[in-house]
Amino acid sequence: MDFKFTEEQEFFRATVKDAVNRLIKPKIQSIDETDDFPMDLWKEFASLGYLGLRHPEIYGGMEADVMTSMIFYEELARGSCGFAMAVTMQILMGTYFIGRFGSEEIKQRVLVPAIRGEKIGTICFTEDQSGSDLGGTRTTAVEKDGGYLINGRKNWITNGPICDFCTVMATVDPAKGMDGLSFFLVEKGTEGFSNGQVIHKLGSHGSVTGELIFDNVWVPKENLLGEGPGNGIKYSMDILNEVRVMTALNACAIADAAMNDARDYALKREAFGKTISKYQLIRSKFADHWAWYEAARLMAYRAAWMIQEAIACQHECMLAKMLATEMCQSAVDQACRIYGGNSFAMEYAPQRYFRDARFLLFGGGCHEVLQNTLGAAFLRKGSAER
Amino acid sequence: MTLHCVVCIKQVPDHEAVVRVESEQNLFIEDRYICSFYDEIAIEAALRIKKDHPDTRITAISAGGRRAVEALRRAVAMGIDEVFHVGDESIESAGSMAIARVLAAKIGPMKPDLVMCGKQAGDDDMGAVGPMLAELLGMVHANAVLSLELNPQNQSFELDRKTEGEIWRLRGSLPLLIGVEKGLAEPHVPVVTRVMKAMKAKIENEPVSKLGIGDHDIESGLQRVRYLQPPVRGEVRMLQAEFPENVEELVRCLQDNGVLS
Predict the structure, then answer these.
(1) SS3 helix, strand, coil % of chain B, rounded to 5?
(2) Residues on chain A touching B192 (C-beta within 8 angstroms)
(3) C-alpha neighbours within 13 Å on the C-beta side of residue A7
(4) Distance of alpha carbon A175 from alpha carbon A62, whole angstroms
(5) How far apart are CA B129 and CA B177, in angstroms?
(6) Which of B70, B189, B193 sits opposite A62 (nearest CB)?
């Protein structure tokens, strides 16, 4: 076993950290306050080429492996959580199926400008009545005139209000549940495709989120992404592992940032004649956090390694996501307690970490659903062992 | 006319790294290192010269242990293709003169037109290697350089250097060695294609022995006697009263502390 990152991976981490420190961190406060999508920052960041992290070099990407990508996602989340959500949507979910299944013509039209940051993409899973329950998808795609007619509404779409294209999950046969799901490319300007309401969120400011409406949207057959209709759920499982580990590492980054700030505060803030860092109850918060954080981060990187090595790891990815995001809730809460009353003031960072951390609980499957799946899997495992 | 520009760089503790005196003989440095601030400016300045004079060949060199490789990867990420790592851990603590001798042994045969160093390193702030290297190479030297104009055709330069309260404009003939000052160039954030290239770059090491450097050359003429904790700033008390009551309070305070009688 070897738990060390390679020299090259450490170098990559340091380089991403430097980019985040110089480009993103100075803008965190203003992004959080305005909650506007930071288009100038987006363009600046895109010009560095990171939006093509996972895509082939021939399209302008860098073909980074899973571990390298995870290092990027972790360091990125140390900046603005909202901006990280917008960027990771573009890198991973928003362009994944186009890169994997799109025709050459679609890749040139959509993927290449997306990698350059000139077009913004997203993926549409969630609806008003279904999020973690993908089998409950109500958006339909019906074959018509050599293509598909899409009808439905998608909600909670990151980058939705500003997207130039989206990958939409729709059912070709509602009676089939999960087995009727497929992905379709829909581009801005297509008749019947429009924006609905924008959601004003508690945290993760700067990533604009909202509703997308598909009212008799006709797309040609080549916009069906993947082989034949009905394979959507199989394909989504391929990406969900990565999404879950990415979310876990986003959570680790936010937790680490919050507790590092809290440490700086505890070392300076005095009460009853000494810095609060000298009190046992404050120290115990750091000790508990440290143990939990290390465990969560190790589990996340182990799951990332399993994805990279093509080892079946659906449950490990769920566990990593669940543990890390719960750890993050605790970390931001403890950081707030260390800051005391100041954590309630908008001028201090803990309140932002507290709001941002909540966002990570739901993406990649809410915990109650994950727990149900994991609990059942654990019980099955017990039966098999006996 | 081809210009050859050599940039000397060093890996130093990150600005955010914890550094503390543990004892008179031991300094604790957290294991977080970056390319020295002024050295990155030197890299950027060299890249700008190449932009203005496309025939320019740029070489980056770092002398030291394994960490030097990280500085060189940074140089590759920023846009330099030719990098050399010379020496090993043994010269890390050998002092400025030893480093200058190692660098001179490597750079001398290259006969560069311009050598660029940071005006001082981000860790020990000695600012010594640059001037020593210039002497060993027999080059004209200027430190704290704010601007630089080169004329490769007639092998001349004009530069501005910063001194206390004034700026000097200097003119001369190449070859030249400069120590760069903040303001000469603004280091850019590397693009990811270069970062990937830097990650994959095979950076070979050249041992000191191959450069004809003997043990006596890396013996330091200086001995570090001990580390001392810098004095802690005294207590600060803000006088809260409004004017003119705060003046009375200030006088009383100075009297209480024996400053005024």
Answers:
(1) 30, 25, 40
(2) 48-50, 52-53, 62
(3) 15
(4) 41
(5) 11
(6) B193
Burial bucket for residue A188 (CB in 10 Å: 0-12, 13-18, 19+) = middle
Closest alpha carbon within chain A to B77: A15
Contact between A89 and A158 under an 8 Å Cβ cutoff? The reply is: yes
User: Long-range contacts of range B105-112, CB-CB < 8 Å, 24 or more positions apart?
Assistant: B105/B211, B105/B212, B105/B213, B106/B61, B106/B63, B106/B206, B106/B211, B107/B6, B107/B8, B107/B61, B107/B133, B107/B137, B108/B136, B108/B137, B110/B4, B110/B6, B110/B59, B111/B4, B111/B175, B112/B4, B112/B5, B112/B6, B112/B59, B112/B175
ipTM value > 0.90: no
Interface probe for B, chosen from A9, A12, A15, A54 (most Cβ of B below 10 Å), is A15
Q: Give CA–CA dist A253/A77, Å, rounded.
A: 6
The answer to whether A275 contacts chain B (CB < 8 Å) is no
Question: What span, in angstroms and rounded, lies between the C-alpha atoms of B200 and A202?
Answer: 42
Tokens of B238: 């803000």
Nearest CB to A50 within list B34, B69, B192: B192
The C-alpha atoms of residue A213 and residue A186 are separated, in whole angstroms, by: 11
Q: Which residue has the tokens 């006969």?
A: B111
Q: Which residues pair with B180 in a beta bridge?
A: B118, B145
What value does the CA radius of gyration of chain A take, rounded to a whole number of Å?
A: 21
Over 80: is that where the pLDDT of A228 sits? no
Burial class (CB in 10 A: 0-12, 13-18, 19+), B198: buried
| Chain A residues whose beta carbon lies within 8 Å of the beta carbon of residue B77 | 15
| Nearest-Cα residue of chain B relative to residue A54 | B192
The partner residue sitting opposite A15, judged by closest CB among B190, B193, B200, is B190
Residues A202-217: tens digit of each pLDDT: 999 999 999 999 999 9
Question: Residue A358: helix, strand or coil by DSSP?
Answer: helix
pLDDT tens, position by position, B109-127? 999 999 999 999 888 888 8
Average pLDDT over residues B59-65: 94
* Closest among B119, B34, B126 to B71, alpha carbons compared: B34
Rounded Cα distance, A125 and B207, in Å: 58
C-alpha to C-alpha distance for B11 and B67, rounded to whole angstroms: 6
Q: Which pairing describes strands A270-271 and B156-163: parallel, antiparallel, or unpaired?
A: unpaired
Count of A–B CB contacts within 8 Å? 41
Q: Report pLDDT digits (tens) over B196-238.
A: 999 999 999 999 888 888 777 777 777 888 999 888 887 788 8
Check residue B209 and report its DSSP letter: G
The C-alpha of B67 sits at a distance from chain A's nearest C-alpha, in angstroms, of 10
Q: Which of A6, A11, A67 to mutate to test the interface with B (most CBs of B within 10 A)?
A: A11
Name the token pair of B76.
């590759």
Q: Tens digits of per-residue pLDDT, A321-357?
A: 999 999 999 999 999 999 999 999 999 999 999 999 9
Residue pair B115/B91 in contact (Cβ under 8 Å)? The answer is no
pLDDT-derived band at A386, boundaries 50, 70, 90: low
What's the token pair of residue A154? 């998608």
Residue partners of B81: CB distance under 8 A and separation at least 6: B58
pLDDT tens column, B169-194: 999 999 999 999 999 999 999 999 99
Shortest distance between the Cα of B41 and any Cα of chain A, in A, equals 15
